[in-house]
Amino acid sequence: MFIGPSGKVLDELLEASGVKREEIYMTNLIKCMLPKYRRPKQDEIDICGEYLLKEIEIVDPDILIPLGYYATRYIFERYAIPVPPKPEFREVYGKLILTDDRKIFPLRHPVAPLYQPSVKEEMLKNYCRMRFLLTDCKWYPVCPMKRFYEEGRLDRRWIELYCKGDWGNCVRYQMEEKGEPHPDWMLPDGSVDERLREGGL
Ligand code: SF4
Fold first, then answer.
1. Taking each helix axis from N to C terminus, what angle separates 68-78 and 42-59, rounded to the nearest 10 degrees?
2. 145 alpha carbon to ligand 1 midpoint, in Å?
3. Which of 172, 174, 187, 192 to mutate to test the pocket of ligand 1 (most atoms within 8 A of CB)?
4. Whose CA is nearest to atom 7 of ligand 1?
5. Which of 64, 117, 155, 168 has the lowest tally of Cβ within 10 angstroms?
6. Based on the structure, what is the number of domains in the chain?
């Protein structure tokens, strides 16, 4: 799996992100080597996809990280997430999505920079964010968001997408790191929810 030039790119990206292959479960959507590395056909995706779904059921991961268009489209379809049209598809890469039971974090396929070197920098940034997903935010035990959530005043999505997800992207976190003051009722995306303030702060 991921051998040859794209495997080398993947190894580089993983090394830069500090994620070891042993920390993650890796698999393929298509289970056979396709002749001349051609694109998978729909019937091949449908047949092999059944094995992938079984693997997901057995491994039961919290986070799915589909790499590239075909794997991401397949996962989106299975989790009833709208699939953007192809010209806009790149916008899904690096966006953390919450479903009922899992998080999905699509990334570009490691083969991408071999054809389009300009995407490498953005890929490096997004692959490095995998590190955040492996641990909770260090501020979570003392963060007002935890209290609001436990009091039933904050939607679970905020906690899963930021505090137990992509916390490096949290505006509160970034301000904490710089020692910048911010109101307790400021949400992870930087917006302010006055209802949290009215709740007795
Ligand atoms: S809201 Fe932000 S700073 Fe607070 S625990 Fe969540 S990710 Fe960390």
1. 70
2. 7
3. 172
4. 163
5. 117
6. 2
| pTM for this entry | 0.91
Report the nearest atom of ligand 1 relative to the CA of 140: 5
For atom 4 of ligand 1, the residue with the nearest CA is 143
Q: Same structural domain for residues 25 and 110?
A: yes
Nearest atom within ligand 1 for CA of residue 146: 5
Q: How far is the CA of 56 from the centre of ligand 1 (A)?
A: 29
What domain range is 42 assigned to?
4-133
Kindly state whether residues 127 and 187 are assigned to the same domain.
Answer: no
Query: If pLDDT is split at 50, 70 and 90, which confidence band does 92 have?
Result: very high
The enclosing H or E element of 125 equals helix 120-128
Q: Which of 77, 108, 133 finishes a domain?
A: 133
Check which CATH number belongs to the domain holding 32 and give it: 3.40.470.10
Q: What is the pLDDT of residue 201?
A: 45
Cβ–Cβ under 8 Å, residues 175 and 167: no
pLDDT-derived band at 3, boundaries 50, 70, 90: confident
- Mean pLDDT score, 120-128: 96
Residues 106 and 183 in one domain: no
Average pLDDT, the chain: 93
**Residue 44: exposed, middle, or buried by beta-carbon count in 10 A (0-12, 13-18, 19+)?**
middle
